[in-house]
Specification:
globular, disordered C terminus, 7 strands, Ubiquitin Conjugating Enzyme, two-stranded parallel ribbon, alpha+beta
Length: 248
């Protein structure tokens, strides 16, 4: 049996259409691969915009270190030239960090000084985002790559003050006001609900019945808002209560 021949582009316009279509397909595959534990770091969750595959919304939960119990929301803008041009990362949640400018822009320059198409990709950026909260990265930062010089110099010259400021922004980020603040266009908004409502939603997730939104139960039963969210978001993404990997 003969295999039908796939029509080839006959014009520059058609060639551009096929190229753009293929890049979007590649991006969808890359997002799907975030299911793999080695691709998406623990405590990091991302989801593309409903209307634009080139816009991803994310959240990172910090479980230890200077920013312990921080809940930081961020945004990834992917250029149409990707993977030949790097994405741009911007934190939505206010953050005192050497690599984060006062308007939220996150610097990738030190880690990705030269962007390598199809070698460097979004999963590497997600790992770098997580690692940037750890001493292993903070201790090796060069000031020229830091967008917040004050945070960098505080970390280097006055660690005690840095620890205090990092704890303050972490505490503010996990407050109900910050966690439940709705970000226009974001696919990772949290909804306040009671424990009973959260349990009903978890049952829907387990049985895969109907569309749901991100759950975040009330901080009852001795659990903080941070603990509640980290439990429920794992139900949403993985179907399990453990602090599993992010991604789909």
């Amino acid at each position: 049996m003969s295999i039908p021949e796939v029509p080839k582009p006959t014009s520059a316009h058609e060639l551009e259409f096929y190229s753009n279509h293929f890049r979007k397909y590649e991006l969808l595959i890359e997002y799907k691969n975030l299911r793999e534990p080695e691709h998406c770091p623990t405590g990091v969750y991302v989801m593309p915009s409903i209307d634009n595959i080139y816009e991803w919304y994310g959240v990172i939960f910090i479980h230890r270190g200077y920013y312990k119990e921080g809940v930081f929301k961020f945004f990834i803008e992917i250029p149409e030239q990707y993977p030949y041009a790097p994405p741009r990362v911007e934190f939505i949640t206010s953050l005192f960090h050497p690599l984060v400018s006062k308007d939220g822009r996150f610097s990738l320059d030190q880690q990705f000084a030269t962007w390598r198409p199809r070698i460097d990709n979004i999963c590497h950026i997600l790992h770098y985002i997580k690692n940037s909260f750890k001493d292993a990265v903070l201790q090796n930062l060069q000031e020229e790559y830091c967008l917040n010089k004050e945070a960098y110099r505080t970390y280097v010259r006055d660690r005690h003050a840095f620890v205090k400021l990092a704890a303050q922004v972490a505490q503010a980020s996990s407050s109900e006001k910050s966690v439940y603040e709705r970000i226009e266009g974001s696919t990772l908004n949290f909804s306040y609900m009671t424990d009973d409502e959260a349990e009903t939603l978890r049952l829907k997730l387990i049985t895969n019945q109907g569309a749901v939104s991100l759950p975040s139960a009330s901080p009852a039963g001795g659990q903080s808002v941070f603990d509640k969210i980290t439990t429920n978001i794992n139900y949403f993404f993985t179907g399990h209560p453990e602090n599993g990997h992010g991604g789909l």
